[in-house]
Amino acid sequence: MAAIIVAVVIGVAFLFAATYVVYMYLISPRGYGIAEIEFESTRLWPVIKIIIENNKSATMTVVAVFVNGSEVTNDPYPYLYPKLPVTIQPNTRVTLQIENFRWNWSTLGTRYAYNITLVTEDGTIFTKIKRAPDAPL
């Protein structure tokens, strides 16, 4: 009987440790600022997705988004979703989508790169450059 209780306690401790590891390394944000930039081409329009992470203990509010130095203003396009300002709670991720932004596929002869800049309410600036994906065959 004692062996069963010890095995159950060890099993519960292992399950808790595994859940904690999965949360810390796969789910919870590990960075602060722009984590990733993704380019998509949907049937309706091209999209740039910006994944923002906030691993700090305070909220972060994004008030401006720039692509290659031009501000995304929703007037009339490209369209930013969700609309600014966007508040990101502590230890969370948010995905901003710039819809109907005409980005170009990279080719063998020409490589296109896009400089994404975010400005927060407290004046912090995050910048990341990402090369556009190669054109599909």
Brief description of this entry?
With 137 residues, the chain is an alpha+beta fold. It is built from 1 helix and 9 strands; from the N terminus they run αβββββββββ. The longest helix has 26 residues, at 2-27.
Structural class: alpha+beta
Helical fraction: 10-25%
From the spread of the alpha carbons, the general shape counts as elongated
Query: Strand portion, in percent?
Result: 35-45%
* Cα radius of gyration in angstroms: 21 Å
Largest sheet: 5 strands, antiparallel
Average pLDDT reading: 88
Helical element count? 1
Order of helices and strands: HEEEEEEEEE
Low-confidence stretches: none
- Number of E-type strands: 9
Cα end-to-end separation: 64 Å
Notes on the protein architecture:
19% of the residues lie in helices and 42% in strands. The chain has one helix spanning 2-27, and strands spanning 32-41, 46-54, 60-67, 70-71, 79-81, 86-88, 92-99, 113-120, 125-131. The strands form 2 sheets. Strands 3, 4, 6, 8 and 9 form a 5-stranded antiparallel beta sheet that branches. A 4-stranded antiparallel beta sheet has the order 1-2-7-5, with no helix packed on it.
Any chance you could write out the topology, listing elements then pairs?
Elements: H1 2-27, E1 32-41, E2 46-54, E3 60-67, E4 70-71, E5 79-81, E6 86-88, E7 92-99, E8 113-120, E9 125-131
Antiparallel strand pairs: 1-2, 2-7, 3-4, 3-6, 3-8, 5-7, 8-9
